[in-house]
Amino acid sequence: MRWLKENSLSLTFLILFLACVGGQAVAGWHDFNDQQLAQHLDRISFLDYVTSAPYAVDVAENWQSEYLQFFLFIMLTVWLLQKGSPESKEMDAAGAESDERQQIGRYADENSPSWARATGIRLWLLSNSLGIVMGTIFVLSWLAQSVGGQVAYNSERLVDLLDPVPWGSYVTSAEFWNRSLQNWQSEMLAVLSMVVLSIYLRQRGSPESKPVGAAHSSTGVEG
Amino acid sequence: MVLASALLVTGCAVDTTAPARTAVRFHTAVSAGQMENACAMLSAETAERLPGPGQSCAEALRALRLRPGGDVTEVSVWGGDAQVRLTGDTLFLHRFGDVWRVRAAGCESVRDLPYDCEVED
Questions:
Q1: Min Cα separation B59/chain A (Å)
Q2: Which DSSP string do the residues of A48-63 spell out, in sequence order?
Q3: Across chain B, which distance is largest between two alpha carbons, in Å?
Q4: Nearest by Cα to A148 from A30, A52, A45, A31
Q5: Does A164 touch chain B (CB under 8 A)?
């Protein structure tokens, strides 16, 4: 029970993720087959759908935008500030910060990760591991979107009696950028809303909010 | 995982021989005057739309006098759809279950527009 309580946030989001991705697969399969029937083409099985290009591109295009959002949020908040926002560091803390504040090298304590006491590439990797992993997942998801998207796009072009296009043409096509940018704009708006609204609004008990009684001008304080 | 799926769906092991074989057999049947056999290789939608009033599919196909297909020069398979270029024709096919059927034949390229096809759905 204690383990469940201590990991309840991750477990809840894992369950929500699995439920949503499963629901997307079922709804997407029915939607795909409705379109197949409208074009006088055969229905496909659920297994064929979840291994198809249309499903891969629908999943990947959302993944890449989410990971881009968090990658940018992680990296930009190292240097950029927003006075009054709990999502920002304090006004004098922009940058990579001191070794002491980051608890690395001789400032590491007995509970610090061992690489926090290391030097060179190991310390650099640990110091940037979150950004590296989130950025890598973004790039791979975007690549997956481009590969799956090309298959789905070319399949539609053949249905319309048009020539298929090579990958280079697809990733410079309006279709690819429309798919990417329509996801990116919503992610950027969500981050902007979070950064700005949290200056003036509160959610009691949430670490994403300032304490209810904290001043609008106080920055980098989480409740 | 998604990248792996995406690579999988690009068709690393795409079978281009099956749609090419259907395209060649279609033109072989047309050239041999075996129009019923050729009609059997069309998709249901194409076979249904091809004949004019009072005409059978075979009669309509014979009246079109399609040019000989010739040899296969290029095959593109994307998902369940394929384009087969022959020296004398370009065909569009769709996979129904395990069977490839001809959706369009006698096609000529039109710049920036869909192919103009004698036979299409």
A1: 24
A2: HHHTSHHHHHHHHHHH
A3: 54
A4: A52
A5: yes
Q: What is the ipTM of this complex?
A: 0.89
Cα separation, A178 vs A147, in Å, equals 15
A200-to-A24, A77, A87, A150, A218 alpha-carbon distances in Å: 35, 19, 12, 44, 10
Length of chain A in residues, anyone? Answer: 223
Q: Which residues of A touch B83 (CB under 8 A)?
A: 158, 163-164
- Indicate yes or no: CB of B3 within 8 angstroms of CB of A164: no
Q: Break chain B into its structural domains and give their ranges.
A: 15-119
Quick: pLDDT tens for A53-104: 999 999 999 999 999 999 999 999 999 999 999 999 999 999 999 999 999 9
The token pair that represents A116 in the structure block: 């926090």
Between strands B72-78 and B113-119, the pairing is unpaired
Residue B50: name the closest of B25, B70, B30, B69 by CA: B30
The architecture that CATH gives domain B15-119 is: Roll (3.10)
